[in-house]
Amino acid sequence: MVYDLLIRNANVLDGSGAPSFLADVAIQGERICAIGKMPYATATTIIEAEERYLAPGFIDVHTHDDTNVIRTPAMLPKLTQGVTTVVVGNCGISASPVTLDADIPDPMNLLGSAVDFRYPSFADYASAVDTAKPSINVAALVGHTSLRSQVMDSFDRPASSDEIAAMEALLRQALDEGALGLSSGLAYRNAIHAPTAEMAPLVAAVGHSGGVYTTHLRDEFAGLLDAMDEAFTTARDGQVPLVISHLKCAGAGNWGGAGKALSKLEAAAQHQHAHCDCYPYTAGSSTLDLGQVTDEIEITITWSTPHPEQARRPLKVIAAEWGISLLEAAKQLQPAGAVYHNMSEADMQQVLAHPLSMVGSDGLPNDPHPHPRLWGAFPRVLAHYSRDLKLMPLAEAVRKMTSLSAANFGLTDRGEIRIGAYADLTLFDLAVLEDTANYEVPIAAAKGIDMVVVNGKIAYHQGAISDQRSGRMLRRTERISQTIPPLQTNQEQTP
Questions:
Q1: I need a surface site. Which of 93, 117, 236, 329 has the fewest CB within 10 A?
Q2: Pick from 80, 111, 101, 180: which is nearest to 140 by CA?
């Protein structure tokens, strides 16, 4: 048999958390069809791995790439990290089911301009992704704030019973059309007035459909533990798996609280399906939120509509030059984006290393001066935190960005190197792997990602991106294909 693609002599990390093993991996069509020692095997394309590491393609469970997978389908920031699948629609904001005029509710403006919100149904959005043919796979959540934007005339109140019913109808349709589930961003001003009574029927609809509920907690600062309890209760009552988005102890007064937060997560996980995601940095980034303006931390402005000249400058410096308070300066800069250096390294490491946490970048691709996590999150975990700091074994780091992610989001046959799985693969050189993006130069490709394979096709190789994009929309309702190529399990092949 002549395979389509054969990767020889790789240190295979299969995504399970087990130690690596030396093997060849053969691909036919979109799937892995043989793993083992195959010295006599032939293929249309043969890649000599030379004992570099071969892992399942990384799954970025927390992104805001909703419109970018359509507008910039090459998706270079993700492909150069070894990411083969992105989960969009996080933090309560999604591109569908949404149509908007010129007014874009915060923080939906993180996803693009009004013209980018032109998908009145999830099916419309999924079709647009299919047409764009991005280089990576896309799976999507429906955002609670996005639902609010379609049925409410103001956000500074709870939704009425009729509005909740209208949101639920939109959500159920999206779930039927392939959405993974629901996300919320209850800390943001356009969702913070939504009580549990508003969330409960929406989350229950997700549970009924077999989806997942992710939440940017109502409070990541002093009220973190209470906000976690709210999320656990809502998910438990709705009988739905829960993912807490970018779990953190934000604010200087909250540093040192990771142990308590993780203990609460562990306790909940004894009785319900509960996980979290985490990015490997001590700064967050979002729109400029007046509630987070304080002199206790460094805040850097990344963009400002009324004052674009102030981008890449500290808020303290801007306020001093204008001779006004930090809060007044922030008001004058809005709408704007910011990076908040509001976490401790020790807390972040505790969350990152915990067995219940996954890796998500939370990158903002439309920010003109983005947080470096957009380009560097996954190599940073592998190189800095696993290889250099020994925070976790390499195999465990890979599990957090592959099989655990696929299992939590219902991505069938993804996140593993095994016979029959889709051939989403990343080949990397651990010795030279490095995230090069930083806060000063945030747009920079990582070093050491040698090759990325998406659905059996080479998408990125030795710094070059393929013209043949092979990503696809992953709908929750998809089932395993009946056209799996012949599988071979033998460890030794002879001519």
A1: 236
A2: 180
Angle at 360 between CA 357 and CA 366, to 5 degrees: 160
Closest CA to 471 of 139, 178, 140, 135: 135
What is the distance between the alpha carbons of residues 391 and 217, in angstroms, rounded to a whole number?
A: 26
What CA–CA distances, in Å, run from 105 to 64, 89, 92, 110, 120? 15, 15, 11, 10, 16
Residue ranges of the chain with per-residue pLDDT less than 50: 479-495
Q: For residue range 259-310, list pLDDT tens digits in order.
A: 999 999 999 999 999 999 999 999 999 999 999 999 999 999 999 999 999 9
Question: What helix, strand, coil percent values describe the chain, rounded to 5?
Answer: 30, 25, 45
* Phi, psi torsion values for 300, nearest 5 degrees: -110, 130
State residue 376 phi and psi, 5-degree precision: -130, 0
First vs last C-alpha separation in the chain: 10
Please report the pLDDT score of residue 477 as a whole number.
Answer: 72
Q: How far is it, in rounded angstroms, from Cα 51 to Cα 35?
A: 15
Write down the pTM of the prediction.
Answer: 0.95
- Cα distance between residue 274 and residue 282, in whole Å: 23
What is the Cα–Cα distance from 280 to 246, expressed in whole angstroms?
10
Residue with tokens 């209760």, as numbered in its chain: 233
pLDDT score, position 478: 57
| Greatest C-alpha distance within the chain | 80
Look at residue 101 in the predicted model and tell me its pLDDT.
86
Q: Are 430 and 53 in contact (CB under 8 A)?
A: yes
What whole-number distance in Å separates Cα of residue 276 and Cα of residue 242?
Answer: 8
The pLDDT of residue 230 is: 98
Question: 110 with 364: CB under 8 angstroms?
Answer: yes
Helix, strand or coil, per DSSP, at residue 108: helix
Contact predicate 62/279, CB 8 Å: yes
Q: What percent of the chain has pLDDT over 90?
A: 95
Residue 493: per-residue pLDDT: 32
